[in-house]
Every structure is written in C-alpha cells, then in structure tokens.
Amino acid sequence: FHEHWRFVLQRLVFLAAFVVYLETETLVTREAVAEILGIEADRERGFHLDIEDYLSGVLTLASELARLAVNSVTAGDYSRPLRISTFINELDSGFRLLNLKNDSLRKRYDGLKYDVKKIEEVVYDLSIRGLNKEATGGAGGEK
Predict the structure, then answer these.
(1) Is the pTM of this model over 0.85?
(2) What is the pLDDT of residues 94-133, one digit of tens each?
(3) Are 62 and 91 in contact (CB under 8 A)?
(4) CA Rg, the chain, in Å?
(5) Which residues are noted in the entry as Mg(2+)-binding (predicted)?
(6) In angstroms, how far is CA 107 from the centroid of its own chain?
(7) CA angle, corner 127, sides to 79 and 61, nearest 5?
(8) DSSP symbol at 90
(9) 122 is in which domain, residue-wise?
(10) Taking the CB of the first residue and of the last residue of the chain, which one, N or C, has fewer CB atoms within 10 A?
C-alpha cells in the first residue's frame, strides 16, 4: 500500500524540511521528519518514511529554495541567496555521492542541477551589481 501514500509523504517531507530550513537554515534528518510526522523511520517498526520519499521531498525543497533566492533579492534581502547557494551546493555534493538508478528519483535529481544553476545566476547578478558586498559586510577592498 506504499504507493497510496508516496506523493503525500514526499510533500510532507518537503513541508517539514522547508519549515526547518526557514527556522535553522539546516537540513532536517529523515529521523526528525519521521518524528514530526508521527511515523517510524525504520521499516520493521511499522508505517515508515521510506528513504526515497525523504530524498524526493528534499529535492522539492531545493526547487523551492531556488525560488526563494530570486524572491529574496526582489525583497531586498541580498544575503539570503548567498546562504541558499552554499546550502544547495552542499546538498548537490551529497546527492552526487549516491548511485541513483534510472528512476523518478534520478529524474528529480537531474532537476537539482537546474536549481543550482538558477541560484548561481542570482549570486552572480548580485556580485556584478555589487550588492553582495552589503551581504558580506562590505568586505572586498572598498573605501
């Protein structure tokens, strides 16, 4: 019956990961998400959070953070895209360590590459316009 819950669990993982990111700017663990949702992390203990569902939810988080980076600049918050860029690059590095099969998770991971590129473009635009100096405290030799 896992297929009945797959999409809902992935969406709930995304929501939990997004809230935790907004509060702490860290990645929530699979165990923490399972605890938030009131389900098990281990298959042997009953209704559980599958690792693929957790990873899919995290990939959805990456897409939403790419949108948040753009919206942050629009709102005048020039430091957030830099922090998001660091977070997403670390996330991408972690996913590159996985040996993903040619399935839906692999296709979702391929989308992460576009999210990384989108965020890099935002950070690049900030640096060209000199707006990231405000975000880093004015460092960079300006007098």
Answers:
(1) no
(2) 999 988 887 888 888 989 999 999 999 999 999 898 877 6
(3) yes
(4) 17
(5) 64
(6) 16
(7) 45
(8) H
(9) 2-129
(10) C
Could you tell me if residue 141 is inside a domain?
A: no
Answer whether residue 75 is part of any domain.
yes
Which H or E run contains 126?
Answer: helix 104-128
Within a domain: 119: yes
Name residue 80's amino acid: R
Determine, yes or no, domain membership for 28: yes
Q: How many domains does the chain have?
A: 1
The whole-angstrom separation of Cα 34 and Cα 9 is: 10
Residue at token pair 């992460």: 112
Binding site for Mg(2+), by residue number, is 64
Q: Which residues participate in the annotated binding site?
A: 64
pLDDT of residue 4: 75
Query: Interhelix angle for 80-96 vs 51-74, to 10°?
Result: 160
Task: Give the whole-angstrom CA distance, residue 11 versus residue 48.
Answer: 15
Q: Block means of pLDDT (10 residues each) for the chain, length 143 residues?
A: 80 96 95 90 77 94 95 92 95 90 86 93 90 53 37
Residue entry with tokens 């988080």: 61
By C-alpha distance, which of 38, 35, 26, 1 is closest to 90?
A: 26
